[in-house]
Amino acid sequence: MQKIFLIGYMGAGKTAVGKLLAKKMDLTFIDVDVFIENHYRKSITTIFEEEGEPGFRAIERRALLELIAFEDTVISTGGGMPCFFDNMDIMNKTGITVYLKVSVEELVRRLHSGKQKRPLIKDKNAEELYEFVSRSLEKREVFYGKAAVIFDVMDGNTDIDADVDKLINKLYT
């Protein structure tokens, strides 16, 4: 019985790494945002627009409390999930938390092209995006740093397959 929570900033690769990690470890993959969208039959963007961030964070928390009952899973969290309520403590008590750590520069590069799908950054220009990511990542590091495993994801030039193999080795050493 295993449960692995992948945490990190938006754009860190939690979904991509999570899918491959689950496949290699013969576990079920669950993306919290997709779980919420399926449950509410609305996009995360729509939920944010209708409920605001506080309402969304409450929905996200309820999803976490449901998901901790699942076994043999890799769970990709939303970037803010560990930073609200006692979510990080719950994840640490019920599974292995893995922080996918990525530099601000790499996050901005990854996020720039797909920012329209992300409510917190969709209206930011390049400079505003860099400032926003830098400031919010600094605030979130205190939560992300509580992860059982901190895994540096270097940049877009790394091989995700090799990264996942390294992560699997790190989980079992």
Which architecture per CATH?
3-Layer(aba) Sandwich
Could you tell me the CATH topology label.
Answer: Rossmann fold
CATH class: Alpha Beta
Q: What's the total count of β strands?
A: 5
Number of domains: 1
Helix content: 40-55%
Number of helices: 7
CATH superfamily: P-loop containing nucleotide triphosphate hydrolases
Low-confidence stretches: none
Notes on the protein architecture:
The protein has 7 helices and 5 strands. The chain has 173 residues and is of the alpha/beta class. The protein has one domain (3-166): 3-Layer(aba) Sandwich (Rossmann fold). A 5-stranded parallel beta sheet has the order 2-3-1-4-5. The longest helix has 24 residues, at 44-67. It is globular. It starts with a strand and ends with a helix.
List the helices and strands and how they pair.
Layout: E1 3-7, H1 14-25, E2 28-31, H2 32-40, H3 44-67, E3 73-76, H4 87-94, E4 96-101, H5 104-113, H6 126-144, E5 149-152, H7 160-171
Parallel strand pairs: 1-3, 1-4, 2-3, 4-5
Looking at this protein, list some descriptive labels.
five-stranded parallel sheet, Rossmann fold, alpha/beta, 54% helix, 173 residues
Give the structure's gist in a few sentences:
With about 170 residues, this protein is α/β, with parallel strands linked by helices. It has helices spanning about 15-25, 30-40, 45-65, 85-95, 105-115, 125-145, 160-170, and strands at about 5, 30, 75, 95-100, 150.
